Amino acid sequence: MKNKKKAIICSISVLLAAVLICVGAFAAYRKYREHRPIKITVDTKNSVGTFDGFGASACWWAQVCGGSDKAEEVAKLLFSKDGLALNIYRYNIGAGEADNVNSIINNSWRATESFYVWNEEKGEYEYDFTRDANSQKMLDLALSYGVVDTVVLFANSPHYSMTVSGKASGGDEEYVSNLPKENYGAYVDYFLTITQYFLDKGVPVKYISPVNEPQWGWGGGNASQEGCHYTSEEIYELYRLFAQEIQKRNMPVKLSAPESGAIGEETKEWFKAIYSDETIRKSLGTLSYHSYWSDDFIDRKDDFGKWLKENVPDVKIEMSEWCQLPCIADTKSIFGALTQARVIANDISLCNASSWSAWVGVNQKGVAEDGKDYSDGLIVASNDFSSYEIAIRYYALAHFSKFIPAGSSQLNLTRNVNDLKTWKSGDPQDKDIRNIYEVSTAAFKTPDGKIVCVLVNEDDERKVKFDVDGVSKMQIYTTTENEQMVNTYNGKIKTVVMPKWSITTVVFE
């Protein structure tokens, strides 16, 4: 009997050992599958679409920077080939809160100077294009480097004199339009008169954007910036008037519509209605969205991108504004740069964005109690612009903008590893599942025939093997928290080793 028990125990031990070996082998295999070298195959022959470039808004830093001794340095950092080589300049047509005695905006950066001013002697409003001089200076400096080929004029609100509340920071109540219908025509004329001024100066204004983030409340007693809420019907009516007047005046500009503050069902409704409106479509240049609130949701962007292809297939889609909200990564943290680079890659590869613009080129320093700066600009400056610093997220954009000029073709790529990562937030009220790829990717063919791939690694060290036709050599540029935009290799094609938490640009020739 004892021998039989020993035999049973021995058999069970052998079985358990076998199970443990199998479990260990499976775990090792799974870990290998998740972290094995990634093989990326780039389809160099079939273009997804032509890319129009990268940009940033001059809101609201330009009106301060233009009057400082840092103006040329900042313009060069953002808009020259030695800097980010941004080719899209988003000029804010201010709604005049800096001139409004009733303004409740207490941040001087965010209260704008307007071209439309009250003439006491005449008792009426008139245009004075010597105003907003600092912002105009920054635009001129940006254009002087010969890279900027697209200027977008955008407004957060109509001029305060046209609004219901008498303020450009929204209505007295939230979620109520601040532009009465009887002033629609005045707003159209005001915006196009300013547009014509810039065109007459020779500024390459390609798009105008009179409605910005219409779904938000914009109003009440605690407004912090200019903004205006619109209902869907108000958006369509206003854009129809803009389109009719552009056509009547035969102006060489197109509409960007409607600069939705986030992707989602409301945005789809607006895009489809605007796309279907014959009058608006004649003057429609881009359908524009902002990439807020979807940083950690690959599925949302994938679904949105598929919807765009099916419902608005032949209109340019632009991502015209993004920064991290809430900004939980400080300006020196690689995680802020990784988030921005991931968002850029996903907007391009999943939503087929034809251009991508950062919310602001420069923002005010925002030092918190922990001594770290959580401002959201590519560059951060003191309130008087006597000093500034470059944030790591500046280099996140550089990994794209310095290597992918306007006119490049977006390419499809495939890879052999599914590294989708999912998780829930720590908030028990939050039912959403987050999901991102540990390695995000985007690929382009430049006008001079180079193949550019950008890799965003939010994992441990990873190896990548490329399959790219017609190339024989490569250059590799890498950013980590300790070193930014370092040319780490220049030679024959080889396996790319991405450091832990890094951004890598590979240029093939």
What does this structure look like?
- With 509 residues, this protein is of the alpha/beta class.
- It has two domains: 37-47 and 413-508, Immunoglobulin-like (Sandwich); 53-406, TIM Barrel (Alpha-Beta Barrel), CATH 3.20.20.
- Helices cover 30% and strands 27% of the residues.
- The chain has helices spanning 2-35, 62-65, 71-79, 133-144, 184-200, 232-249, 265-276, 278-282, 298-311, 334-349, 392-401; strands at residues 38-50, 53-57, 88-92, 116-119, 124-127, 150-154, 205-209, 254-260, 284-290, 316-321, 355-358, 362-364, 379-381, 388-390, 409-415, 420-424, 433-437, 439-445, 451-457, 462-468, 473-479, 486-492, 496-498, 502-508.
- Strands 22-21-24-19-18-15-1-20-23 form a nine-stranded mixed sheet, covered by helices on one side. Strands 2-3-6-7-8-9-10-11 form an eight-stranded parallel beta barrel, surrounded by five helices.
- Mean pLDDT is 94; it is low at 25-30.
